[in-house]
Structures are given as structure tokens and as C-alpha cells.
Amino acid sequence: xxxxxxxxxxxxADPAGPGPGTAAGADAAVxxxxxxxxxxxxxxxxxxxxxxxxxxxxxxRQVRAVDGLSFTVSRGEMVGYIGPNGAGKSxxxxxxxxxxxxxGGRLRVAGIDPSRERIRLAHRIGVVFGQRTTLWWDLxxxxxYRLMHRMYRIPDARYRENLDRCVELLQLQELxxxxxxxxxxxxxxxxxxxxxxxxxxxxxxxDEPTIGLDVVSKAKVRGFLLDLNAERGTTVLLTTHDLQDIxxxxxxxxxxxxxxxxxxxxxxxxxxxxxxxxxxxxxLERELPPIEAPEPARVVRVEGPRQWLAFPASESAAxxxxxxxxxxPLVDLSVREPDIESVIAKMYxxxxxx
Length: 354
What we know:
The protein is α/β, with parallel strands linked by helices. It folds into 3 domains: 33 residues, no CATH class; 229 residues, Rossmann fold (3-Layer(aba) Sandwich); 61 residues. 38% of the residues lie in helices and 28% in strands. The protein is built from 12 helices and 13 strands. A 6-stranded mixed β-sheet has the order 5-6-7-3-8-9, with helices on both faces. It has a 4-stranded antiparallel β-sheet with strand order 11-12-10-13, covered by helices on one side. A hairpin with a 2-residue loop joins β8 and β9. α1 crosses α2. The radius of gyration is 24 Å and the shape is globular. Keywords: Antibiotic resistance, ATP-binding, Nucleotide-binding, Transport. This is ABC-transport protein, ATP-binding component.
């Protein structure tokens, strides 16, 4: 956004403030944009749904996918946006990109109304929609990138620099001449992430970016996104069901359910709010009585030499593991993260009963 445009945005938001022609007005606009790069205020999205109720009869009802949603995301933040299926995550992102128009409320991205200035906004955002590719299905991967080069009018030097960087870090070299339809899900996800970044977007919306990836590829994608955020200050809004994505990438997490924001804060606070538990799976050399674990850890299941211990998700597993390894004949162990959907369901039930 140009400096004069930011000043006009600030004046519109605060008519009593400094005028757009003053340095104070421009500086206030810059500060406002930095503080709230993405801004939602009471945003709603209602869909009309028709269903058959009898012969030649249909019933019309309204489904409220997003219900009075309000939050802000600062420039350069990496935020996890999570919730169960059908919670309203994808609907929110589609409104942020201008694909859908809100039924009510106010929404701005970099001072732009997405539904009114979708083309202008498109040059400032990148989107990866999980199972829906932005690549051309029957063309080699490199041809999709060349088309993006022309569509976004990316300067040649900038395009080559960004392409080379993405190809190297996402390991796409051997895939460039392969038709998109022949790529595996994990390969296509890496290809989609690269496509979303060729034009240097200021904000990146990611829907399940590590789906279908093996452990090594997941680590590479996460490292790539961390570098992108650190080097270029790219704002990232991430939806995922993989808590490790959130833990390794995001300093903040928002939980949405039934179209409403249920939690906004750090991941540790989410576990505390939902009283979630991690599970330590221990394989012993032989079958033994339940392990005597220090509170609050407890054995919840025993099958032969394998035992399952539950402990609060907000606590480290290091002390528990060290204590068991010192006292029991240990063969193997693993830590299982809590299911985020169960955490949210518990939070929702507690709110409903309050």
C-alpha cells in the first residue's frame, strides 16, 4: 500500500484524526496497518440451504458458517487457525481472499476490503487450499509457474530468484517437467506452496500445508516457512490438524468452532483451557505391573509389555521419561499429542454447560 493510500485509510477509520496530507496522518496510518494487518470486526457469513422435505417440497433454512467473528493479526505474525471440520475456517479464509462476501461486519486485509478490491488484493496475498490445487492439472509444473509469472506480471529477475529459491528448498527440481496430475499429494502440496510465493505475497494463507508429506518433507516445509517469515516478514495464517505444525511455526493460536472464536492466545494456554493430556506409550522388556509414575501422570492402559500413561499437555515429558528409564527395563517409547478436536469439543461442552 502506498503511503498516501495508508493515510486515506487511517482518515476513514478516524475522521477526527490528522488529515491525509500531514506527516502525522501518514505515520498514524503506517502504525495502524502494522498493528492490524488483518482485521475482522463482527464478521458473519450466512448461507441459504434448501433441502427436499417431500414430493415437490423443499425447505429453506439458513446456515451461519461464521458468527460475529472478530480478531486482528499483526504484520509478520504466524498464527494457527484451528478447529474441527465445519467450524468455519475455510469460509473465513475465502472471505479474507475475496472469494466470498461477508453477510455482515467489517473485514480488511492491509487496509483493503477483499470483496470490493479482489484483484488489487490478489497481488499481496498467497493461498494454498489443501486439497484444491492452483496448478494447471495437465501441464508440467514449470508451465504453471510460467503462467503465474505472466499473470502476476512478476519482474523476470524477481521471478527467477523466487523460483530458484523455492525449487531448492522444497526439492522440486526433479518435478518441474512432470504433469501436475502425475504428482503425489505431498509433491503437489510443495508445488502449490511454491506457486503461492512466486510474487512475494505479504500474507500467506495455508490450509493443511503438510498434508500427505512424510516426516522429512514436513520438516523441510516447516523450515522453509520459518525462514520465509524471518527473512521477509511474511504474515502467515495457518489452518491444520497437525499440532506439530502449530508448535513449530506459530507463536499464537486461534480456535474457531460453530463460526465463533473460542480461544485466542498461546498454545500452552489452549491446553490448559481444554485440560488436554498427552500420552506416553512405553514398551518394556517384559510384562510388568502398572508403572508407578509421579503425579499428575497416571497409567491409563496396559497390554502385555506396553503401557500408556497420560499426563497434562502443558507439562514436559522429559522428567517423566527420565524417571521411567531409570527404574524400568525400557525398550522403546513415544509421545502422542492430544487430538485437537477432542480439546475443542471439551472446551465447547464446558462453555455450553456454564
